[in-house]
Design goal:
This protein is of the alpha+beta class. The two termini are 58 Å apart. Helix 3 runs antiparallel to helix 4. 58% of the residues lie in helices and 7% in strands. Keywords: ATP-binding, Cell inner membrane, Cell membrane, Kinase, Membrane, Nucleotide-binding, Transferase, Transmembrane, Transmembrane helix, Ubiquinone, Ubiquinone biosynthesis. Belongs to the ABC1 family. UbiB subfamily. Belongs to the protein kinase superfamily. ADCK protein kinase family.
Amino acid sequence: MTIASIRRGYQVIKTVLHYGLDEIIANKKTPWYFSLLRNCFFWLRNQHKDKPAAERLKLAMQELGPVYIKLGQMLSTRRDLLNDEWANELSMLQDRVPPFDSALARQAIEAELKAPIESLFDNFDETPLASASISQVHTANLKENGAEVVLKVLRPNVEAQVQADLQLMCQAADLLEKLLGEGNRLRPAEVIDDYRTTILGELNLNLEALNAVKLRNNFLDSDALYVPYVYEDYCYPRLMVMERVYGIPVSDVEALKAQGTNLKLLAERGVELFFTQVFRDNFFHADMHPGNIFISREHPDNPFYIGMDCGIMGTLSDVDKRYLAENFLAFFNRDYQRIAQLYIESGWVSENTDVLAFEQAVKVVCEPMFNKPLDEISFGHVLLELFRTARQFDIVVQPQLVLLEKTLLYIEGLGRQLYPQLDLWSTAKPFLEQWMSEQVGPKAIFDKVKMKSPYWAEKLPEFPELIYDNLKVGRKLLGTQQQMLDKYLKFQHKAHKSNYLLITSAVLLICGTLLLNQDATLWPSYICITSGIVLWLTGWRSRPKNRKF
């Protein structure tokens, strides 16, 4: 452990104790050594006793900096783990970070390019366009064609800082898991492990560039989403160069109204984009908060989204997609029994769950929704309620579904902000029904056969040879099995013969011994004993030597 990590560890402990976070754990859960360690820092006292515990946690994370702020933001989506009070407080965390020195930014960019900035770019702006916890953005013009671009560069030493904080988080999570004991619902070690994967992915701008290229290609012909062009030749682990785009922040509704944007169409397209990314492409933007989404200034009557920051992307397995789509449709059709069965079949809740009890719990959550007008129902809220209900039945946390849930909440929240009358159900249901029809039924079978037919056509000439080889292997296998059977029967025959002789010898020896004690002549006992010894030696020598067949 380095001096820097020790210093950072003390800073974290100081912040935790100043906000009284040690008091959150019940006294009965704390072992004697925990109290001893706490008393070692007797000069650090709770300075915020007047605030609720959830608010204190939010303030502590805000003070500890970007890595902890992002952790809090992620935890705010874990309604399957946290109650509303905690989740709502953490959802208010904001990632506001001052820019770092432009000289350091220039130095980092040139280190990646292995060339002076002026040799590749013109009009490099020393003043950053934007600054976040992980990176900073500067504008320039590409020298080869004059195109306006932005250069996104990681903060100096951010990797070391993140790794140090992650190490401390892992150690704290392990300690907390021991304190909470087995069967605790929070599962801190699992949460931190999920977070580690997410945050480390954001530290590789090469990976973000590849994600952006893939997302852009998925929507090249779309009039709903535009992803800026990425200049892959200028992308490195700590530097990413992409097209500069101009748009209106999606949260600036007044500016959108001022230019006459069709907000109803824009909101509906946001919903369609979500379901298209999830079910058509199985590659969805999982960090669609307002800071990463802009709206085009062109064609306000036919507006499109501009997607930024592809550092966090989500995917689902085919099984998860199928179960998720069926879950949505069952909910639309008020089939609560099917919802309960799907949760159990998919492994999202324990297979030992009482289906009838779970069905009733789901019905209690969903049925009141149908008594309201559709535009007053929050689909994201319903999803959260379902997670909360499943939590009572020992839900098995699915990290990929948590990303999906967070994205859906963002999308619906933005849609309702743009167009409060947004009916997410009527927009989503036709899409899901069409997708399901493409996955099952005659058309789906035909499409799968059509997709596989080139592969089968390529392998068809090999079929006769494969059949002949399999027949040879089968015949050889039958011969081998017959040999093994013969060996086994021979082994059994020898074993039976040996056992018979040994048992007979034992009987003769016992009879001979009994006859010795009689007053009659001795020769019958001698014959029995001698025969018993001979049979014993014969049986012993005839035993099978091994059990290898």
